[in-house]
Structure formats: structure tokens, C-alpha cells
Amino acid sequence: MTATGLGRALGLTLALAVAGWAGSVPAQGLLAPGDGGDEPIEVEADGALEWYEDLQLYVARGNALLRQGTAELSAQTITAHYRELPDGGNQVFRLVAEGGVRVVDGDQSVEGDRLEYDVDSETVIVTGGDLRLETATDTVTADDSLEYYQADQLAVARGNARAVQGTDMVEADVLVAEFAEGPEGGQALSRVNAVGDVLIVTESDIASGDEAVYNVADQLATLSGSVRLTSGGSQLTGDYAEIDLETGISRLVALPETQGRVRALLEPAADSQ
To answer: Within 10 A of 93 (CB to CB), how many other CB atoms are there?
Structure first.
């Protein structure tokens, strides 16, 4: 398996999670007046714009659209929970969008049936039957949820999660991207965990296992549990694999506790005559 191909496949969630979740629904931007959202918020709806003063709710019904700067949130219904501030103003602290939810910011978009955004915890959870996150180069889909936790610096795709970039793809029951502060500030990908029925596909190679971990700092990828590496017609199987993405050297081992063996099926080169 090529080092660059596996590295791209395991690192797909970087641009997707940061640019998509954190960028399209910024903690300091959309629907966070008083927390840095300097641009005005525009709200439109075909049905009604409602204010429930006793419940401290704003509700937009019927093809509702909320816009701030370059970011737009559309859904059948958008509900904003607010609290009163000491200076007499109001501050939205929770946002719920339901029905055909779509968040767009430039060439980044997130789609689902329901979105919940907690401003205080800087948490975004999108659920529904056709979850999709897209950028100009990448796509992430999931069956259960797309989640972003700013405080924990985590992005999660659950339920038959799949990340695709060009011919590279990583698929698992759950994909988790961990972030840390980058050398120039902001967030940088530090680690990607793929859990459950992991499948990694590049243009020329396929890897599968029960779990996979990619550590960015040391450029080391590991796969564990019923590992199978396929390149061309050759196959390697074992319990655990280490792949150095910097050198391209792979190491497949059988763990003593499993009493397993490493096996290889090498396809001979075709006769040129």
C-alpha cells in the first residue's frame, strides 16, 4: 500500500470537519450575537416569523432561511432559544433546525434532517437519513449523525461513515477526528480513529480491519483486528499492521495472544509471452 495514498485516505476528515462543521456553523458567527457576530442576521420564511416572549423563543416556519455573512442555514423550521442579557439585549444560546436542513458557506455544505447547535458548548449535531458534508474536494456521509465538539476538539461521523476524496476512501462504523492547536494557531488534525468494519481504499490498494488509527505527528498508521492488505493480486493477512507513511514501510504481525499467523498470498507476474 502506498504511503501517500493511505495518508490521504486516513486524513480526509481534516478539511471536512474543520472547514465544514466548524466553518459553516462557526461558534463565533452564525446566530451568536454578542459573541463576535458583527454582521447582521437576516431571517426569512414563507409561513411565519413568530416570537414567544414567555418561552424566550424565535421561530421561523416554512422554507425558513437564516443568513449571516457568507453562511446560510435553511430548513422547514428554525427555532432559536434566547436569554436576556444584563444590558437588556437578547442572546441566542441554542438553535434547532428541522426538515430539509442545509448549511452552506462558499463551497462547503452540510445536509441532514435535523441540526442542533449549542452556542455555549460550541457543539453541532446533525442527524437524519441522508447526512452529507461536502467541500470542493471532499465528501463525508453517515447514516446516524455528523457531530462537532469544539471544546473537546473532536469531529465525529457515526453509522456507516464514509469519507471520500478523489479515488481515496475510508469507511467505518464510526470515524473520529481529533484536533490540536496548529503551529500558526487555529486547529490542525492530530489523529484519526476509525472503528468497526474499517475499509480503506486508494487507487491501487485496499486495507481492512476492525480498527485503524492515524497519528499525524509521527506519520504512523496502524490497523488491528483481522487485518488484510491487498495490492494488485497479492494479499497479506494478520492481526496488526504498522505503516510508516514517511518511509512507506509496512509491518504486519501476528499477536501472541491470538495464536494467529501472518499469511501472504503473492500473485506472480503475468508471463509477458
So the answer is: 18
Q: Could you say which residues of the chain have pLDDT below 70?
A: 1-38, 184-187, 245, 248-249, 254-273
Q: Is residue 15 part of a domain?
A: yes
40 found inside a domain: yes
**CA pair distance 184, 142, nearest whole angstrom:** 31
Q: Is residue 174 within 8 Å of 156, Cβ to Cβ?
A: yes
Look at residue 261 in the predicted model and tell me its pLDDT: 64
**Which amino acid is present at 240?**
Y
Domain harbouring 173, CATH code: 2.60.450.10
Q: Determine the pLDDT at residue 115.
A: 92
Domain count, the chain: 1
The answer to whether 126 and 98 are in contact (CB under 8 A) is: no
Please give the residue range of the domain that contains residue 112: 3-195
Residue 46 lies in a domain: yes
Q: What is the pTM of this model?
A: 0.76
Whole-angstrom distance, CA of residue 229 vs CA of residue 236: 5
CA dist., res. 73 & res. 25, Å (int): 9
CA dihedral 146, 150, 151, 157 (to 10 degrees): 20
Is 250 a domain residue?
A: no
Instruction: Give the C-alpha separation, 89 to 109, whole Å.
Output: 31
Query: DSSP letter at 271?
Result: P
Over residues 145-188, the pLDDT tens digits come to 998 887 888 888 999 998 887 777 889 999 988 877 777 666 67
- Residues in contact with 22: Cβ distance below 8 Å, sequence separation at least 6, in sequence order: 148, 150, 187
pLDDT number for residue 27: 32
Instruction: Give the span between the Cα atoms of 176 and 159, in whole angstroms.
Output: 12
Residues 98 and 116 sit within 8 Å (Cβ to Cβ) = no
